[in-house]
Sequence to fold (108 residues):
Amino acid sequence: MESEGDRLLTIVSALANPHRLRIIGALTVQGRTYVSKLAREIGISRPLLHLHLRKLEEAGLVSSRLELSSDGKALNFFEVTAFDIDLTPHSIAAVAGTLNLPASTSTD
Fold:
């Protein structure tokens, strides 16, 4: 199970990229849309968009749903999930102790 600290780190890491911020912005303004359309609007390739969407989905910031169009094409629709992040020094201090830190690689 992911700790609160690890969850916050996952979210902050997912948002620490200009493409992903643009994706969140576009989905918020336009609402639910499919990958090809979003790639054209953002101006990045579909494979690159998929990588960014996967990172956002793993963080719980977007969700996807595969649907068939009227002509039988499979379209993967994405939308922003509701989130509200309390990011203050106090909120960070409250979850910092729950982080699962990797083993030290220090040579001291």
Observations:
- The chain has one domain: 4-95.
- The two ends are 32 Å apart (CA to CA).
- The domain at 4-95 is CATH 1.10.10.10 (Arc Repressor Mutant, subunit A).
- The CA atoms of residues 6 and 101 lie 9 Å apart.
